[in-house]
Write a structure and sequence with these properties.
The chain is an alpha/beta fold and 249 residues long. The protein contains 7 helices and 11 strands. The radius of gyration is 18 Å and the shape is globular.
C-alpha cells in the first residue's frame, strides 16, 4: 500500500508530539534575519496541514501541496471554517505548478528525504525555484544520513486507544535508502483493521542538497542545526536549509 494511504486518518494522533509551533517559529526567526515578511506561502508536502494552518493563522495566504489525496482530505477537514483557510493542491513536487508564485516555500518534517531518486529531487528543486517570487525564500529540513543510518535495525512503536503502529527500519548502503515497513492497526467500531505501508527515505548529504539548490538558481544558502542558528554537529539528527531566489540580503 502507498505511504500515507491508510496512515492519513491516524497520522495526527501518532505524531502528537511533533512541535509544529516551534517549527513555524523557527521559520519566522529565519525570515526576520532575512528581513522578509511574506504575504503568500506554499507549504510543500503539507501532509495533514498542521504547518499550513499555523502559517494561515499569521495572516499569510497559503497554498498547501501534497501528493496524497488522503492526507489532503484530513488537512481540509482541519482548516474547515477558517477565515483564511489554505488552498489545497494535489501535486508531486517534481511537477509543482502553483496558480501563482509565492513569497515563501517551506517543506517540513523530512519530506525531501521521501524523494528517493536524486534526479527527481533535482527536478523538484527547479520547480520550487520557479514557484517563488523574485527574492523569495525556501526553507526545509531533512533527516541527516547519520540519523537514517542510526535507525537501521531499530523497532519503533506508536499507539493510542484507537491505533497501534509498529515499524522497523532497514538502511541499505547500496541504495542510500532507509526503508521502514509499517504495520498499522486501526479501530473500526468493535473491530481492528490491519494495514501495511512501506516508507522510504533517501540519505541526502549537505553537499548534494546545496548542489541541487545552486543548479536550480538559488543563492544565499545557509545550513542550520535543528531549529538553532548553529553549525550542525556531526551527530545532528535533523538540519534546516534556507535558500533565496534572486536578490539576497
Amino acid at each position: 500500500m502507498d505511504a500515507y494511504y491508510a496512515l492519513a486518518d491516524s497520522y495526527d494522533r501518532l505524531t502528537n508530539d511533533v512541535p509544529y509551533k516551534a517549527v513555524v517559529s523557527f521559520y519566522r526567526q529565519i525570515l526576520n534575519r532575512e528581513g522578509l515578511a511574506p504575504r503568500t506561502a506554499a507549504d510543500l508536502a503539507c501532509g495533514t496541514g498542521s504547518v499550513a494552518v499555523l502559517l494561515a493563522d499569521e495572516g499569510i495566504k497559503v497554498t498547501a501541496v501534497d501528493m496524497s489525496e488522503q492526507m489532503l482530505t484530513v488537512a481540509q477537514q482541519k482548516s474547515q471554517g477558517m477565515e483564511n483557510a489554505p488552498i489545497y493542491v494535489c501535486q508531486r513536487l517534481e511537477n509543482l505548478h502553483l496558480p501563482r508564485a509565492v513569497d515563501l516555500a517551506v517543506c517540513a518534517l523530512d519530506s525531501i528525504n521521501y524523494i528517493t531518486d536524486p534526479k527527481i529531487c533535482q527536478k523538484a528543486m527547479k520547480r520550487i525555484y520557479r514557484a517563488l517570487n523574485p527574492g523569495g525564500c525556501f526553507i526545509f529540513d531533512v533527516n541527516t544520513p547519520y540519523k537514517l543510518r542510526k535507525m537501521d535495525g531499530q523497532v519503533f512503536l506508536d499507539e493510542d486507544e484507537d491505533v497501534y503502529c509498529v515499524w522497523r527500519g532497514e538502511f541499505d548502503e547500496s541504495t542510500n535508502i532507509l526503508s521502514y515497513a509499517m504495520d498499522l492497526f486501526q479501530r473500526r467500531g468493535n473491530a481492528w483493521q490491519r494495514s501495511f505501508e512501506l516508507h522510504e527515505e533517501y540519505a541526502y548529504s549537505v553537499e548534494q542538497l546545496t548542489g541541487y539548490l545552486r543548479q536550480a538558481g538559488f543563492t544565499g544558502i545557509e545550513i542550520f542545526a535543528d531549529r538553532r542558528f548553529e553549525i550542525p554537529a556531526q551527530d545532528e539528527l535533523r538540519i534546516y536549509i534556507k535558500a533565496r531566489k534572486g536578490t539576497v540580503k
